[in-house]
Specification:
By secondary structure, the chain is an alpha+beta fold. Helices cover 40% and strands 21% of the residues. It is built from five helices and ten strands; from the N terminus they run αααββββββββββαα. It has helices at 5-29, 48-81, 97-126, 249-265, 274-278, and strands at residues 133-140, 143-148, 154-158, 175-178, 183-189, 194-198, 203-207, 213-217, 223-228, 241-247. The chain has a five-stranded mixed beta sheet with strand order 3-2-1-5-8. Strands 4-10-9 form a three-stranded mixed beta sheet. Strand 2 (143-148) and strand 3 form a beta hairpin. The longest helix is centred in the first third of the chain and has 34 residues, at 48-81. It is elongated and about 90 Å long. The chain starts with a helix and ends with a helix. The structure holds copper (II) ion. The site of copper (II) ion has 7 residues, from loops.
Length: 279
């Protein structure tokens, strides 16, 4: 069956409309703080750091797209205009000062335009502001323990809850933090290297035995935010999610009071019993 030009055009238009609808639908149904089906973008940001990461990602994507199209255009010109058939007598031109200066200077300027925001972002991530509270996250095989040294020194385990939604991300005891407060997260590993990562906050930091790493986030939104251990750490690596509930100051204060009582009776497992607790 042969299609006329009009039919092809209509069919293409149909595909485009369907594609746009799919993308728009996917974005509309995406819930903050967790992955969405068919998601191809970064998760929606909830911190200044993630805003910056998202912007930097778009900036780099735009830059490499322009460079790639430019190189492609040059290649096409060379192939079409200067092949042996179209151009049987090649020019013997060699040097051209203007072009040589341009192709040295322009890439340098592009690299500077990438390096400056890159270093600013690195500084924003690594220069930890004065923290409102500190949480120590210990990676264990295969779950996390959270300690609140500033809020009554309690510590508890956070294990994946098989019956909870979102699937593979829901946990029994969530990490709870106040909104718009600088939270310093210190990470360490009790057994092997784990990695504490929450995409919506733009944080990912290794949890290494015998070492204390630190990072920070200040969530500007309340709600549930999910992450996962991001270092291959053993057979249940895929089943040690990170669930952070961001709440108001009052809700946080109330949670601290209940948590102090609840986890005094049922504290985090020690390293020796860590394996048993995960079963
Ligand atoms: Cu792990």
């Amino acid at each position: 069956m042969k299609m006329s030009k009009g039919q092809i055009g209509r069919r293409l238009l149909g595909f485009m409309v369907a594609g746009v609808a799919l993308v728009a639908g996917g974005v509309a149904s995406a819930e903050m703080g967790q992955p969405a089906p068919w998601e191809y973008k970064l998760q929606e940001s909830a911190t200044e750091v993630m805003d910056y990461i998202t912007w930097f990602h778009s900036w780099l994507l735009g830059t490499i797209t322009v460079i790639t199209l430019f190189v492609l255009a040059l290649l096409i010109i060379v192939v079409v205009k200067f092949n042996a058939k179209a151009n049987p007598v090649p020019s013997r031109t060699t040097h051209n000062t203007l072009i040589e200066v341009a192709w040295t200077l322009i890439p340098v300027l592009i690299l500077v335009a990438i390096a400056v925001p890159s270093f600013r972002l690195l500084f924003l991530e690594l220069d930890i502001p004065k923290a409102d509270l500190t949480i120590k996250a210990t990676g264990k095989q295969w779950y996390w323990s959270y300690a609140y040294p500033d809020n009554g020194k309690f510590e508890f385990d956070s294990l994946m809850a098989a019956d909870k939604q979102p699937r593979l991300l829901g946990v029994d005891n969530e990490m709870v933090v106040p909104v718009n407060k600088v939270v310093r997260v210190q990470t360490t590993g009790a057994d092997v290297i784990h990695s504490f990562a929450v995409p919506a906050f733009g944080i990912k930091i290794d949890a290494i035995p015998g070492r204390l790493n630190e990072t920070w986030f200040k969530s500007t939104k309340t709600g549930m935010f999910y992450g996962q251990c991001s270092e291959l750490c053993g057979k249940d690596h895929a089943f040690m999610p990170i669930a952070v509930r961001v709440v108001s100051d009052q809700e946080f204060a109330a949670w601290v009071e209940t948590a102090k009582k609840k986890f005094a009776a049922n504290p985090a497992s020690s390293f020796a019993s860590a394996g048993a607790a995960a079963q």
